[in-house]
Amino acid sequence: MISPQPHIGSYYAASANEIPDYSPLRGAQSSDVCVIGAGFTGLSAALHLAERGFKVHVLEANKVAWGASGRNGGQMIGGISGENRISKSLGPTGESIVWDMRWKGHQIIRERVETYGIQCDLKSGYLDVAIKPRHLQTLEAEFTELKGHHFPFEIKLLSKQEIRDTIGTNAYIGGLLNMGNGHLHPLNLCIGEAKAAVNLGATIHEQSPVLRIEKQSKPVVVTEQGSITADFVLLAGNAYHFLEPKLRGIMFPVNSFILATEPLSEDIVCEINPQDLAVCDPNYVLEYFRLSADKRLLFGGRCNYFGRDPDVIKRHLMPRMLKIYPQLAGARIDFSWGGTIGVPINRVPQIGRIDNNIFYSQGYSGHGVNVTHLAGQIIADAVAGTFDRFDIFANIKPFTIPGQHIFRRQMVGLGMLYYALKDKL
Ligand SMILES: Cc1cc2nc3c(=O)[nH]c(=O)nc-3n(C[C@H](O)[C@H](O)[C@H](O)COP(=O)(O)OP(=O)(O)OC[C@H]3O[C@@H](n4cnc5c(N)ncnc54)[C@H](O)[C@@H]3O)c2cc1C
Question: 129 pairs with which residues across the strands?
């Protein structure tokens, strides 16, 4: 038996607007679409589908937003990882198709926050920082590309000194300010989207781990106490997925951890982030940080540790935070937690089908806040019979990582080693 778990002890869980309970699935039911997993992918799709009048059931093993969606860095980052590969696969029109999709998730999030009145501390403002000269070249190219597309938000290249003035650290040699990106409270966004879907007629069942899918002309999704017969099924378990070994085997699980300081004084906030920007470095084994609404520093990084002991997470992350902000040496750490991200080897998000009417979407490589919202729309289009964007992703074949679903723990280590080496090159 699989035991459902509560939300991890994060800053987000402690500051959630409300955490409603949805009852477990009991008995046999039917639906147009059964979604497995109530993170951003599953709920984004469910809300798109409910808006279009489909009958939707969402089955969640634990709680709504229990996975990466309720515990991530909250950084709303533009772009889709692996987008060069996607645009190359499409020929001459590829670049403009990908450009439209790059910002789609942001647009969906902003519209939903507005339409459904979701209180999730959504802010605009994002800073990509450079550690090495080659990072600066990439940011300059990004700046030129954004300008070329008449990007409708403020963008600006910053020098080392301007970075120092903007975020109070000498750790970076330059950066790109982008007011089109931003940050938000991911758990509150996810809970708000769940509520909006339910208000439009969707049904959510928590504590309902799906044990198997019986593949028939109408698939039957089976939990311990019930089942749903549906026209379509969406697998949206991402790095927490435990049903189809084939899907587990096409991504590296990469661990990322976050700590939250106590609320910082006005003086410190003025010194380290007066413009309230989200900040991210370009490494694979990266560091990312921002302020929360109550002015804590939320500092995150990927690391090779597989566990949830808050003290161990603190010990791993504190030195990295203090290297960037020595002025926080005396700050109390109130929360530390972690989670798992799905990273495909070719970095391209994996949207496809394992059977005619059984779809999946996963593997956003740390861009999930944005791309899950795009993916939900693409899946809703597919259910409604439009496969244009679905096929773009489905036609890019993922690499399989042998043994990934068996040697999970070892694979996390191997994945981190692989990406750490790439950073050093
Ligand atoms: C620490 C951390 C920091 C991150 N920071 C950022 C960031 O700043 N910006 C960004 O864009 N992205 C970030 N990400 C990545 C982002 O959070 C994810 O890409 C995104 O949330 C994935 O959403 P999802 O819905 O696909 O998966 P998840 O949110 O992981 O949800 C999957 C859900 O499926 C459920 N499930 C799995 N199997 C079953 C089953 N058999 N039956 C029922 N339910 C099942 C799980 O319980 C889980 O709730 C971060 C991730 C982590 C872990």
Answer: 175
Q: What integer pLDDT is reported at residue 244 of this predicted model?
A: 87
Strands (E), 160-225: 174-183, 203-205, 210-214, 220-223
Residue 181 Cβ inside 6 Å of ligand 1? The answer reads: no
Phi, psi (5° rounding) for residue 305?
Answer: -145, 135
Tell me how far apart the alpha carbons of residues 402 and 183 are, in angstroms, rounded to a whole number.
36
Beta carbons within 8 Å of 145's beta carbon, 6+ residues apart: none
| 305-330 pLDDT per residue, tens | 666 777 888 888 999 999 999 999 99
Q: What is the identity of the amino acid at 385? A: G
- Give the residue whose CA is nearest to atom 2 of ligand 1: 72
What is the rounded average pLDDT of the residues 179-202? 98
The Cα angle at residue 189 between residues 113 and 274, in degrees rounded to 5: 80
CA dihedral 172, 174, 180, 186 (to 10 degrees): -10
Q: Tell me, what amino acid is at 297?
A: L
Residue 410, phi then psi, degrees to nearest 5: -65, -35
Looking at ligand 1, which atom is closest to the CA of residue 342? 19
Dihedrals phi, psi of 66, to nearest 5 degrees: -65, -35
Q: Taking the CB of residue 96, how many other CB atoms lie within 10 A of it? A: 11
pTM: 0.95
d(CA 240, ligand 1 centre) in Å: 7
Say if ligand 1 is within 6 A of residue 369 CB. Answer: yes
User: How do strand 210-214 and strand 220-223 relate by DSSP bridges?
Assistant: antiparallel
> Ligand 1: does its nearest atom lie under 6 Å from the Cβ of 415?
no
